[in-house]
Amino acid sequence: MRWVLFLIGLAGLLAFAPDTQAQTGFDRPGGDYTHFVVKSGDPAECSARCDKDGRCRAWAFAYPATGSGAGAQCWLKTRVPRRTEGACCVSGVKGSGLIEPRAGAVEFGIDRFGGDYRSFDTTPQQKGESCAAACAAENRCRAWTYVRPGYQGASAHCYLKSRVTPPRRKPCCMSGVVR
């Protein structure tokens, strides 16, 4: 009987777990008691600040707004609002840390610095699709890095690379290796 109750409790926890994890592509509107600019542009800084603040129960991070000149923003919350889809944001509850999505060959939060042979401005995208497609279409291209808008100017930017360089953690970017 104890095992049955334990398994029922465990199933209940697992059913609610996805909504309590920090994830890219989600906002948590409401419950704000303070907000601040995140100079590093890293959502992990927002999560860490919530973990250290006794009032904080949840947080939401917004990447720099295209063309606004405003930096990345963090909102700390006194309650845990329901998450809603939002490409602009990353959010989570206190203690959840930061979970970058796994989307096949896309490396979220990674810059592959160097090896550039061509670059261009592109439209804002959730997974750097136009950058990945441009690299796949050119035999010379081995890897790519997409920079979100607001980190190197108002536009999103794509770098095509003639060699595969080591990955470096940078929240501005997402990258991929094609060949």
Largest sheet: 5 strands, antiparallel
Question: What's the overall average pLDDT, rounded?
Answer: 84
Say how many strands there are: 10
Q: Given the C-alpha coordinates, what overall shape results?
A: elongated
End-to-end distance: 55 Å
Structural class: alpha+beta
CATH A-level architecture of the largest domain: 3-Layer(bba) Sandwich
Our estimate of the beta-strand percent is 35-45%
By CATH, the superfamily of the largest domain comes out as Hepatocyte Growth Factor
Specify the number of helices: 3
- What fraction, in percent, of the residue positions are helical? 10-25%
Molecular structure report:
By secondary structure, this protein is of the alpha+beta class. It has two domains: 72 residues, Hepatocyte Growth Factor (3-Layer(bba) Sandwich), CATH 3.50.4.10; 71 residues, Hepatocyte Growth Factor (3-Layer(bba) Sandwich), CATH 3.50.4.10. The chain is built from three helices and ten strands; from the N terminus they run H-E-E-H-E-E-E-E-E-H-E-E-E. The protein has a five-stranded antiparallel sheet, covered by helices on one side. Strands 6-10-8-9-7 form a five-stranded antiparallel sheet, covered by helices on one side. Strand 8 and strand 9 form a beta hairpin. 34% of the residues are buried.
